[in-house]
Specification:
CATH superfamily of the largest domain: Zn peptidases
Structural class: alpha/beta
Helix content: 25-40%
Number of domains: 2
Low-confidence stretches: 408-418
Oligomer: single chain
Length: 418
């Protein structure tokens, strides 16, 4: 929403937009700074400092280094019985920068927080605890799963964020999901030898890497729609030495955890067969937590659809299954959550490209940031102020807590923050 946008018919939405407007340039400046200074996973020190400083200036109490991760944070305002979290992402892609639009994601979540905080007395009226959680290492590293493991999301009843895309449409968030993904490193160990004087004494680890890649390539002919696998050898060495060790990084993706587990087993078998065929030993280690599929909450999704449509972005049907993965999926499997994909008008290219990084700093990118911020604030306000929606979210949060062996209280947790 811009200054010349038409007046909003919904008074609650208009009030949030008015509360956001004085902070818009501050939010834009932060997003521009993140875009101009891209930092990769677990190294987002500048982004961490910018976000936490802004929140402290808005009267949030901030815990830096949340969950033992130096570039994570947890900020709190209010002490109501419904606990809502806005997730902030800010890591960039090596060599590309913000080709996934995380600078806009950070701005939108921070903007939503400031919009809610900017309406006098609103958090008390809503009986709401508002959290802003800085989640590093989404591109690689599974920062949100690490924060889940560390208890940073304990007591949270709902969480949301938005994600920009090069699709120019706005989609109905309901019915959309993402792929699960897991990443590993396979290390083959053989025996070194002189490649000319005594090659028969060696066991070539690179041969095992080649066999594994061929087997995985043949596996592709029988994987199902929505499943993916990729292998990247990490090669070095010289031609006059039979290589003693070879390393292959690999991943697989699927739309359900059941099909993911089967594909993982099939792919691991390719590596085990390669080791057997070449006489090498094999070690496989996980390089980051598994990312789980998105489970978009229906109550939050209906509220989002209403808000984003009212801001002048009509829905164009469901996006369906996204050929991407996010650790927000892990959050969504444990508590009611929302992660809409929203298009930057006129954007081309694809995610994870320099072209999309340019769009993330465009006027249309910042217009999307504004609309996403106001819409997310509206979702939280609607759910908190509508008894049926509030109870539905609380009930699902409690059920997910039982399913995952954690307790989600019906009132705000004693966090030590105020």
């Amino acid at each position: 929403m811009t200054d010349d946008a038409p007046a909003l018919a919904d008074p609650a939405l208009a009030e949030l937009a008015a509360a956001y407007a004085p902070r818009r340039e501050e939010i834009h400046a932060l997003a521009r700074a993140l875009h101009a200074d891209p930092e990769i996973a677990f190294e987002e020190h500048g982004a961490h400092a910018r976000c936490t400083t802004l929140l402290e200036g808005a009267s949030f109490t901030v815990e830096r280094g949340a969950g033992g991760l130096p570039t994570a944070f947890r900020a709190q305002l209010g002490a109501g019985s419904l606990v809502a979290a806005l997730c902030v992402e800010y890591d960039a892609l090596p060599g590309i920068g913000h080709g996934c639009g995380h600078s806009l994601i950070a701005g939108a979540s921070l903007g939503a927080a400031l919009a809610l905080a900017g309406v006098p007395g609103l958090l008390d009226e809503l009986d709401l605890t508002l959290l802003v959680i800085g989640t590093p290492a989404e591109e690689h590293g599974g920062g949100k799963q690490l924060l889940l493991d560390a208890g940073v999301f304990d007591g949270v009843h709902l969480a949301l964020m938005t994600h920009p895309t090069p699709h120019t449409d706005t989609y109905d968030v309901l019915g959309s999901t993402s792929q699960a993904v897991g990443r590993w490193r396979a290390t083959f160990t053989g025996r070194g030898a002189h490649a000319a004087a005594n090659p028969a004494d060696g066991i070539n680890a690179n041969d095992a890497a080649v066999v594994a890649q061929v087997a995985a390539g043949l596996l592709r002919q029988r994987i199902r729609d929505g499943e993916r696998l990729a292998l990247v050898p990490q090669q070095d060495g010289v031609t006059n030495i039979v290589p003693e060790q070879a390393v292959v990084d690999f991943e697989c993706r699927a739309l359900t955890m059941e099909s993911f587990a089967q594909l993982q087993a099939d792919l691991v078998a390719c590596f085990e067969g390669a080791a057997l065929a070449t006489g090498t030993s094999l070690e496989i280690t996980a390089s980051e937590p598994v990312y789980e599929p998105l489970d978009q909450d229906e109550v939050l999704g209906r509220a989002w659809n209403r808000a984003i449509s009212a801001l002048g972005r009509p829905l164009a049907g469901s996006l369906g299954a996204s050929a991407a993965s996010t650790d927000m999926g892990n959050v969504s499997q444990r508590l009611p959550a929302l992660h809409p994909f929203v298009g930057i008008t006129g954007a081309g290219g694809a995610l994870h490209t320099r072209e999309f990084a340019d769009h993330a700093a465009s006027p249309e990118g910042f217009r999307l940031l504004d609309d996403s911020a106001i819409a997310m604030a509206a979702v939280i306000r609607e759910v908190a102020s509508t008894p049926v929606s509030r109870e539905a979210v609380l009930a699902r949060a409690a059920r997910r807590g039982r399913e995952n062996g954690t307790q989600v209280p019906s009132a705000a947790p004693d966090t030590g923050l105020s």
